[in-house]
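Before relying on records like the one below, remember that each one covers exactly one chain. Contacts with other chains, cofactors or solvent are not represented anywhere in the record.
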Amino acid sequence: MAFTEKQAYKIEVNENFSIGVRRSDIVLKDDVEIGRSYHRSLFQPGSDVSGEVQEVQDVATAVWTPEVIAEYEASLPVEEPTAEELTVEDQLTE
């Protein structure tokens, strides 16, 4: 009666070039699956995927060209600084 564990991955590239990863953690008893759980991750263009499995890194390298990353970054809304981030001079001119 031997218990083993393995992982399986499903990798998807979405319309906005984000990469979705579903990891299945599979528990086997004598090579028969007795349990499975899922974990999902989503990575935006330019995200650090160096800690992910090689397949995710390979997809990111192929899909996230410098142009795709620049287009994604340009699409992000510009955030206004909070009062804590403003310098005293900035606060006086408001």
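Residues 37 and 81 are 41 Å apart (CA to CA).
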